[in-house]
Amino acid sequence: MRADSDTVRMAHGGGGLAMRELVRDLFATAFAPLADAHLVLEDAAVLPCPRTSRLAFTTDAFVVEPAFFPGGNIGDLAVNGTVNDLAMMGAKPLFLSSAFVIEEGFAMEDLRRIVGSMAEAARRAEVRVVAGDTKVVPRGRGDGVYIATSGVGEVPEGVSLSASALEPGDRIVVSGPVGDHGVAVMSRRAGLSFEAEVESDTASLAGLVSTMLEAGGRIRAMRDPTRGGLAAALHELAEDSGVSIEVEEAAIPVRPAVRRACDLLGFDPLHVPCEGRLVASLAEDGADEVLAAMRAHPLGRDAATIGRVGGRGKGRVTMRTTVGGTRLVDLPAGELLPRIC
Amino acid sequence: MRADSDTVRMAHGGGGLAMRELVRDLFATAFAPLADAHLVLEDAAVLPCPRTSRLAFTTDAFVVEPAFFPGGNIGDLAVNGTVNDLAMMGAKPLFLSSAFVIEEGFAMEDLRRIVGSMAEAARRAEVRVVAGDTKVVPRGRGDGVYIATSGVGEVPEGVSLSASALEPGDRIVVSGPVGDHGVAVMSRRAGLSFEAEVESDTASLAGLVSTMLEAGGRIRAMRDPTRGGLAAALHELAEDSGVSIEVEEAAIPVRPAVRRACDLLGFDPLHVPCEGRLVASLAEDGADEVLAAMRAHPLGRDAATIGRVGGRGKGRVTMRTTVGGTRLVDLPAGELLPRIC
Is B61 on the interface with A (CB under 8 A)? Predict the structure, then answer.
């Protein structure tokens, strides 16, 4: 049996001494290099307001199971996921908050690793974790740890992206191979191993987006294809803009190991989440420059044009298959990949 | 057995069709009067940046059990709690986000009630819920619903509050009777009923704070005494400022029903959380004006001076008891009142 100090106890969420110590010794220490530790302990962080006319604000809850998977854990996933939601609106991520719901008995060492990964991911994404909260629920009322992160970013003047802004003739690009994160988590969960282990692609897309915005083209919209995968992201763009999208199966990058795992597990790679990829719709004029800028960035080396926006319509997404046919790309019903992020 | 559509299913968190419908039909509809519904469905909300030099940013996770209690539910509690954390820094709350972790099988009708209460609490607090996320975990891996809210506010020029800003000679005031929320939740949980049911005091303190800031005194710091109650809030202020605080037991307002419930349950009312009260440290000069302004506000009618900041020191909090003695006010260890908010 573990010693008391080795696991999270109900008292760590109770508002008393144990909680103050946990916040000071773990959270404030881990995030201190990025933030004035003092701020973390007030009721709200007080921060310099960016000199811009528009803020971006987003939130996500992370319940991934298992919490540790090839290529990452729930901590860096939470930071990168929130950073990416800001980046998809063209915003420069500035500040993050994190709220923990921890199950009683969770190993303190695992919590430390998760918080350490969050701090490292924040450092890489150049954001500051400035506010937090810790709640503890009894055994059997949670599952290890859930993390809700929120983020505030600054939208540069002149940048205006929206899922409803696609225009007929736009070019659809992805920044790299799809499905890595979902396969990494599902294969770990299923206890499967493949000849080449697939790692999660969890990463901050903020730097890549910044490069794309500077490349001079016209980006209409971006999405990071998380839950529901590339298929859901394409559907969202097509529906919100009232256009059709046509993609080429052969042009969509999928790692061979991901494709084999999907065959084995019965998934369509287009339904499998990524956590470090983006799909964008680009005005054809200037699209080559944006694509070149993507390929010059480490996270966009395998960027590819995968299709085109067709005419106005009801949000149909179709795919020309490798055997020359055309099929509808369906929106996943949602049950297939529970707790993937 | 309930029909499928009456409960939350795993698919509602899966990123596919069921989730899109839930977000559109429930969340976007409930929060639409307060926000451009379209914004809610982008990856991040894009918002007008306040014309101020400082933002306030905070987050909280809510795991209260039971989710419905006399005077409120987890929904209005989550909105008010986050609004109050912003208000305690003197900020005007502007935008909220909410992330849900829902247990599979949770009644859709209960979810609707909770979201409705959130929308109503947001309306009262004059904030907009602009971003959200929904995750679903399998039965036995959660407990109904957990909600993490984050908030962004605008700190008016010239306002600077901090738990480290107390000065010897300051006056300590509370805005009303303490312990109502904790007793309301604990008595419901324990299946107790008292001759007069105690209701949670959950409320937005933003209006009261705004009134106090306009009253012309000098507010050093404010706290809403949630987890750990008034005792924890006083400890935080005393420790962070390196001063002692002395309070008068007879001056601390506690409703008779709350006092009786605390006697019965074995709690010290000073350890029992409030969710619509504040404690403040005021420079003596101008304190009468601030107190008068508080009493003129519906949420501060019973505001009272409860003590004073003593000399510099190690953060001791002492209380003159009703029988004329002096005792240390201890910081609760944290186990006593689990899942109270």
Answer: yes
Q: Residues A193-245: pLDDT tens digits?
A: 665 689 999 999 999 999 999 998 999 999 999 999 999 999 999 999 999 99
Report yes or no: A143 at the B interface, CB cutoff 8 Å: yes
Quick one: pLDDT at residue A1?
A: 41
Top-confidence residue, B331 or B321: B321
Contacts 24+ apart (CB under 8 A), B187-192: B187/B70, B187/B261, B187/B265, B188/B66, B188/B69, B188/B70, B189/B65, B189/B66, B190/B265, B192/B261, B192/B264, B192/B265
Confidence of residue B338 (pLDDT cuts 50, 70, 90): confident
Q: List the single best residue of A74, A82, A96, A133 to mutate versus B (max B Cβ within 10 A).
A: A133
* B231-272 residue pLDDT tens: 999 999 999 999 999 999 999 999 999 999 999 888 999 999
Instruction: Work out the pLDDT band at A336, boundaries 50, 70, 90.
Output: confident
The distance of B308 to chain A (nearest Cα, Å) reads 21
Break chain A into its structural domains and give their ranges. Answer: 10-154, 171-328
Burial of B120 (0-12, 13-18, 19+ CB in 10 A): middle
Q: Cβ–Cβ of B228/A15 closer than 8 Å?
A: yes
Predicted pLDDT at A2: 47
Query: Tell me: the pLDDT tens digits for B289-304?
Result: 999 999 999 999 999 9
Positive/negative CA dihedral, B67, B70, B73, B78 = negative
Residue A138: closest CA among B79, B231, B189, B113: B189
* CATH classification code of A171-328: 3.90.650.10
Token code pair at residue A159: 């940048």
**Of A40, A69, A226, A227, nearest in space to A144 by CA:** A69
Between chains, do B224 and A43 touch, taking CB under 8 Å as contact?
Answer: yes
**What is the predicted ipTM?**
0.95
Condensed to tens digits (0 to 9), the pLDDT of residues A73-106 reads 999 999 999 999 999 999 999 999 999 999 999 9
| Closest CA of chain A from B12, distance in Å | 7
Residue B240 bridge partners (DSSP): none
User: Going by CATH, does the domain composed of A10-154 fall within 3.30.70.60?
Assistant: no
Q: Which helix (H) or strand (E) holds B263?
A: helix B256-265
Measured CA to CA in angstroms, residue B338 lies from A17, A112, B180, B184, B341 at distances of 14, 23, 16, 14, 8
Test A150 with B99 for CB contact under 8 angstroms: yes
* Distance, CA of B74 to chain centre: 11
CB of A91 less than 8 A from some CB of B: yes
Distance CA B341, CA B64 (A): 4
